[in-house]
Amino acid sequence: MKARDIPASAWIGLFGIAIALACALFAPLLAPYGETEIVGSVWEPISTAFPLGTDNLGRDILSRLIYGTRTTLGVALAATILSFSIGVFLSFVAAVTGGAVDQGLSRLNDLLMAIPTLIFALVVLAVLPQDIWILILVMAVLDSTRVYRLGRAVALDVAVMEFVEAARLRGERTSWIILREILPNTLSPLLAEFGLRFAFATLFLSTLSFLGLGIQPPAADWGGMVKDNKDGIIFGVSAALVPGATLAVFAICVNLVVDWLLRRTTSLKGGRGDG
């Protein structure tokens, strides 16, 4: 694949993701002030000292936005990786094994999906200790139900192929069939779904933080920054709009890249079929 084959929309998405990753990796070097450092008055306007103004406590919004990128993306990425590990493993086991195992896992997944995700997360997080690993685990378990549904669907399509039947006749173990036969042939839709679920995880985490059950202060994250500065909207202060706009732009960038990957995968399949 050559650079000129990548459409402009995908380049925009990749550029936005690259900026977010740079902020997440090098936050202490890029942020002009500390994450919790009070450097000015409450809700100061945009100036050379504060390019995005200050928040409800006099902290630099740009600095907290950069640190918040590291927190938001780190937690969302960890939750997405864990949810895919759980969902893909269980869905592939169900698709390959079939029978009572498939029915039991699928019905349990349907039961969890029937519960409203946000309400379930709020109830669980309100009872459990406010720890970042508990937050990641709750997000991962809830999101794994969506991954399970997709993983089982694509695995069932591959499980009936001749090469999988041949592997069964050779006496290969279930783990070998999953890792060597099914997983390589389902990576394309799973990778695309990973990007979408990562974007949804950032939105979900920001929602939980806005409601007070996500990342706890004084740590910065995008949803928490919106919550801290929401009262400023009444007075025409844009402090709450900056992290909200950042969240929206990042979600759009991820979706632009995912759309390109899906189109590229589809075209590659079509090309192989024509040959």
Would you give an account of this structure?
By secondary structure, the protein is mainly alpha-helical. The protein has one domain (about 30-275): MetI-like (MetI-like fold, Orthogonal Bundle), CATH 1.10.3720. It is about 70% helix and about 0% strand. It contains 11 helices and no strands. The chain has helices at about 10-25, 25-30, 60-95, 100-115, 115-125, 130-160, 160-170, 175-180, 185-210, 220-230, 240-275. The radius of gyration is 22 Å and the shape is elongated. The two termini are about 20 Å apart. The model is unreliable at about 270-275 (pLDDT under 50).
> Could you list the spans in which at least 5 consecutive residues all have pLDDT below 50?
270-275
What oligomeric state best describes the polypeptide chains here? single chain
CATH superfamily (homologous) name:
MetI-like
Helix/strand/pairing category: mainly alpha
The separation of the N and C termini measures 18 Å
Residue fraction in strands = under 5%
Give helix % range.
over 70%
User: Radius of gyration from the CA trace?
Assistant: 22 Å
State the major sheet. Answer: none
CATH topology: MetI-like fold
Sketch the topology as an H/E string, one letter per element: HHHHHHHHHHH
Average pLDDT figure: 89
- Choose one word for the global shape: elongated
- Assigned CATH architecture: Orthogonal Bundle
DSSP helical segment count = 11
Taken together, the total number of domains comes to 1
* CATH top level assignment: Mainly Alpha
What is the number of beta strands? Answer: 0
